[in-house]
Amino acid sequence: MAVPTRFASRQPLTAAELLAAPVRYPSPARLAAPLQVGAGVKAREAAVSLGLLTVGDLLEYLPRDQRETRSAGALAAGESATIVVEVRRIATRPVRRRGMRPLVEATVADASGTLLATFFNQPWLAARYRPGTRLMLHGRADGRGRFTVQTHALTDDLPTGGGPDGAQAGVGHYPVTDGISSTQLLALVREHALACEDAIEPLPAALRRREGLLDRPGALRSLHFPLHEGAQEQGRRRLAFEELFLRAVALELRRRRHRLSVHAPVLDGARELTARWLAKQLPFALTAAQSQALEAIDADLASGAPMQRLLMGEVGSGKTVVALYALLRAVEHGFQAALMAPTETLAEQHFQTIQRLWGSEVVSAGLLTGSTPASRRAGLQRQLASGELALVVGTHALIEESVQFRRLAMVVIDEQHRFGVGQRAALAEPAPGGVVPHELHMTATPIPRTLALSHYGDLDVTELRELPRGRQAVATYVCDSDAERQRAYARIRAELDDGRQAYIVCPLVEESAALQARAAKTEYERLRQGPLRGYEIVLIHGQMRAAQKQEAMARFTAGAAQVLVATTVIEVGVDVPNATVMLVEDADRYGISQLHQLRGRVGRGHHESLCLLFGRRDSPRLRALASESDGFRLAEADLALRGHGELVGTRQSGRDDGHRFADLSRDQELLERAVLRARVLVDEDPGLSAPEHALIASVLPTIVA
Ligand code: ADP
Ligand code: MG
């Protein structure tokens, strides 16, 4: 098969490397020139800390706009943020201390929640900001519903800018840091305004016309010197499109190249094991979504190209069955298969499931984790290298160099979002001759479509949205009073008396694992002596030895223990269909997706199930969980509440989600168009050799250099 020669000898990049590598432009001198800040060391350092090293950096520095504002309901304790809100109530309040002017307190709200905002020293504001007024406030949140205002403005007064010489001096316009002011930045931008014209346009004119996009110099100009309402946003959108588009092109090229340069064993032979398993051993009928997933896998396996599939499935949607199918498909063709899980508890559980299903006569399987004793490990490694062992389940211990396979054809990665990208990539290392195993990545963290496209664009995606039949949504309640606590324990006892089981998730101690373990022990003792006296309770926390954890888990799985008191080690994957109640302490300290994962431990059988979240009743996250059971919709809500950065586990602040201009929480449509255009482009010109694509090729240096 023809491979574009300019790529032929290049190493493929991982998605993570691509994301980490900023797209850099061939910069003509004016844009590449170092930025002279002039006004002293402090300001220079501040500029550097904002990433403003060159004139080009400055001109690509996004002025403060909507995307910099946060949701009122989602602010963490101590967080400094800008919010756009409406005044609901406002009043002055006298201050006890002498010589101080009365405070102004205003109840303010946006769609996500309500805050009590405090203005110091400006009593006249109570008359000025009447209920109904829309304000932009900057200040600090205390995480408990109070917000101390540092600066404020009527939204109508917010600058929309003027021409390059328009009078906007002194207005908070650019996000800044200590040492440099927005006014200083504005002055610098003005000074270098002409350099906008030097910006190189990577997008072909035809594409820009079809998408109705400004050219690059024009976009930069509108960003800083908007001439009409909405011009700034137009500029941002253009730059965001470019950013998303170029990344999509890179991912698409990588995907293609990967498929052309490596191959995987063709697995399209007879289905003895899988057929027998599906017909005889599986205790239920597959859901339609599961069947479709199996079909997609079959098509991948028959193609000769390595499968690179991401299976996104709602918690409890039955991903394990799909995983086992994929593993068995390799085994029945005489190949080896590996299943990697993020925790020992989960690996152990999968291993037991496999043993229960098949017994060792049918498929020889081994378990390899960090706590596998050395002698055993040596034995397993020998059997894997010789090919004697068909199937191995394990943690990241599987990707250590000492673990060699004889003919590995299938790798399944469960809860793949829990692994570092590097760890995932290590498994995919090609063997000599460019042969790689098929890969199935599974995640229960529902990834909103935008993220799937932008971060996993090189994987094929299958969704399992449907839950097995007979499942009811887990009734979820937010509790915060003592009376509710007593009722909660009464309800748990009733379930236990009925033969069901319960999870209790301990108060969260983030400071250290040791403190967390102690808190867990204390809670365990308290429950044993008090509200759950007389019931069989086991405890699992992170500091226990693996064997102890295994024993506790086994007792709970077998039904010998009625209650599992645990830290969040049970968050991923644990499957005990007889468990029907979960009580989560300190629930408002967890994120939405984590709570959704936790909740997914119940409601797995046909019994009605219940989840009790102890935490602030007005927490928007807890409220979302109580009212919504669909993980995909919760993920969207999460995205809206938190902004996109946190969701992918990057730092929280502004743009550290790897995007400079795009904001995935609101640029969904833009992203979809960009991805579509990228696919079309790569289809038509996979070598990027057409003259109008030369600049695209040159701004993807991470691919071609
Ligand atoms: P997850 O997608 O969260 O990993 P699991 O694979 O652990 O979910 O499945 C959750 C539960 O549903 C398990 O107890 C499993 O046996 C059961 N299950 C899976 N598929 C079906 C099905 N088609 N019908 C009924 N129960 C199923
Ligand atoms: Mg699972």
Short key terms for the protein model shown above:
disordered N terminus, 16% strand, 705 residues, binds magnesium ion, alpha/beta
What does this structure look like?
- This protein has 705 residues and is α/β, with parallel strands linked by helices.
- Helices cover 39% and strands 16% of the residues.
- The chain is built from 26 helices and 19 strands.
- It has a 7-stranded parallel sheet, with helices on both faces. Strands 14-19-18-15-17-16 form a 6-stranded parallel sheet, sandwiched between helices.
- A hairpin with a 2-residue loop joins β3 and β4.
- α8 packs across α9.
- The longest helix is centred in the middle third of the chain and has 31 residues.
- It is globular, with a radius of gyration of 28 Å.
- The two termini are 23 Å apart.
- The N terminus is likely disordered.
- The protein binds adenosine-5'-diphosphate and magnesium ion.
- Magnesium ion (MG) binds next to α12.
Write the layout of secondary structure elements.
Blueprint lengths: L14 H6 L8 H4 L7 H10 L5 H5 L9 E2 L9 E14 L9 E8 L2 E7 L5 H4 L5 E8 L4 E9 L27 H10 L13 H7 L4 H9 L6 H31 L10 H10 L6 H16 L4 E6 L5 H13 L4 E5 L3 H19 L2 E4 L5 H13 L4 E4 L13 E6 L7 H7 L10 E6 L5 H7 L4 E5 L10 E5 L2 H16 L3 E5 L7 H17 L7 E4 L5 H13 L4 E4 L12 E6 L7 H8 L10 E5 L5 H8 L3 H12 L1 H4 L20 H17 L9 H5 L2 H4 L1
Parallel strand pairs: 1-2, 4-6, 7-12, 7-13, 8-10, 8-11, 9-10, 11-12, 14-19, 15-17, 15-18, 16-17, 18-19
Antiparallel strand pairs: 2-3, 2-5, 3-4, 5-6
